[in-house]
């Protein structure tokens, strides 16, 4: 079963062809990072317009990269939400028209379920066993889920304010590093010493599974303005990253313990973070938990993960009706 995946929920226009939910035949991503960089965040109207420009070339490139024609496709899977409505509508409208024209089914995929399916796409890595716990950490979401099967997400806890990636982006904006902040702060942190400054870890003393990152963001902003350049930016970045990683890893393993699972998946843009990878791997080793984190090319938004999740929607007969629409919130 060959599924064309389409993703346009935020600032990446992506198309991919995936076989049977696990084998990537092609995966193309057009990033708008250059466009939004100067604004320090994604500008929704600009994102929509650039999706319109990129969607056809991306789908054509995905088909060409695996030597396929549209007629070879068995189904189309598209991100239905959550995300920016104007951005989602571009991919959604395109996917539905494409499926209608080809007379093949179209399924609408939940973006977060898509991220979770990114851990099933690398043949050299053993996939998680259901039920497992998933930590989804991206620019728009930070949440812990119990995943009993391929199509069910049971929310265990989530951020009460900023997402972890959003905290990275906001700190980068304050430091004048542009958008997105994650990769640049991650690189800076690797050059610094985290122990020189201490930033607060919200809710770490509590037994719950919720997160909060806005206090940390304010603490770093305050420190930056009061320090007057005495502490190196690398040390500040390292201390900030340590605080984020400490909370993410502690809560993720607390969730695994509470749910009695043996597998933990950490997915989404922030899963590319080197500090997070290292600490999560150490903790998993110590506790005998199987940790699943995608390679960086599958952490950020992509369409292969959407096609992978779409395969299961199709198996379950969850095909979009003519009245289906996108949705903005989880
Ligand atoms: O999953 P994604 O591409 O889009 C959303 O669905 O939000 O995630 C993008 C987010 C951005 O906030 C970006 O700063 C963050 O992921 N990010 C990182 C790293 N690479 C990307 N955060 C921390 N460390 C990284 N290496
Ligand atoms: Zn995402």
UniProtKB/TrEMBL annotation:
Family: Belongs to the KAE1 / TsaD family.
Ligase among keywords: no
Alphabetical list of InterPro entries matching this protein: ATPase_NBD, Gcp-like_dom, KAE1/TsaD, Peptidase_M22_CS, TsaD
Cross-referenced CDD domains: ASKHA_NBD_TsaD_bac
Protein name (record): tRNA N6-adenosine threonylcarbamoyltransferase
Keywords of the record: Acyltransferase, Cytoplasm, Iron, Metal-binding, Transferase, tRNA processing
Organism per entry: Desulfobotulus alkaliphilus
Residues noted as binding substrate in the record, renumbered to the chain: 136-140, 169, 182, 186, 273
Cofactor binding note: Binds 1 Fe(2+) ion per subunit.
């Amino acid at each position: 079963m060959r599924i064309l995946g389409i993703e346009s929920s935020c600032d990446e226009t992506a198309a991919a062809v995936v076989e049977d939910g696990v084998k990537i035949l092609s995966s193309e991503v057009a990033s708008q990072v250059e466009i939004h960089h100067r604004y320090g965040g994604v500008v929704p109207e600009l994102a929509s317009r650039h999706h319109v420009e990129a969607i056809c070339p991306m789908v054509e490139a995905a088909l060409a990269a695996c030597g396929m024609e549209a007629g070879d496709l068995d189904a189309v899977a598209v991100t239905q939400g959550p995300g920016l409505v104007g951005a989602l509508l571009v991919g959604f409208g395109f996917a539905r028209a494409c499926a209608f024209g080809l007379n093949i089914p179209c399924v609408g995929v939940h973006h977060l379920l898509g991220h979770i399916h990114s851990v099933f796409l690398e043949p050299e890595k053993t996939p998680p066993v259901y039920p497992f716990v998933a930590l989804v950490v991206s620019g728009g979401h930070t949440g812990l889920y119990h995943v009993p099967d391929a199509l069910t997400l049971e929310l265990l806890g989530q951020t009460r304010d900023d997402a972890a990636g959003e905290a990275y982006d906001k700190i980068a904006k304050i430091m004048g590093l542009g958008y997105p902040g994650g990769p640049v702060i991650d690189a800076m942190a690797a050059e610094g010493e985290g122990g020189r400054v201490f930033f607060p870890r919200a809710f770490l003393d509590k037994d719950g599974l919720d997160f909060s990152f806005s206090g940390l963001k304010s603490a770093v902003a305050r420190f930056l303005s009061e320090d007057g350049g005495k502490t190196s930016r690398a040390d500040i970045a390292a201390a900030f990253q340590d605080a984020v990683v400490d909370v993410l890893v502690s809560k993720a393993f607390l969730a695994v313990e509470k749910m009695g699972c043996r597998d933990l998946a950490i997915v989404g843009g922030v899963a590319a973070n080197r500090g997070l990878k290292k600490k999560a791997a150490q903790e998993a080793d110590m506790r005998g938990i199987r940790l699943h984190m995608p390679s960086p090319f599958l952490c950020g938004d992509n369409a292969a993960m959407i096609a992978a999740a779409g395969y299961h929607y199709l198996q379950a007969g969850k095909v979009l009706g003519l009245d289906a629409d996108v949705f903005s919130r989880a």
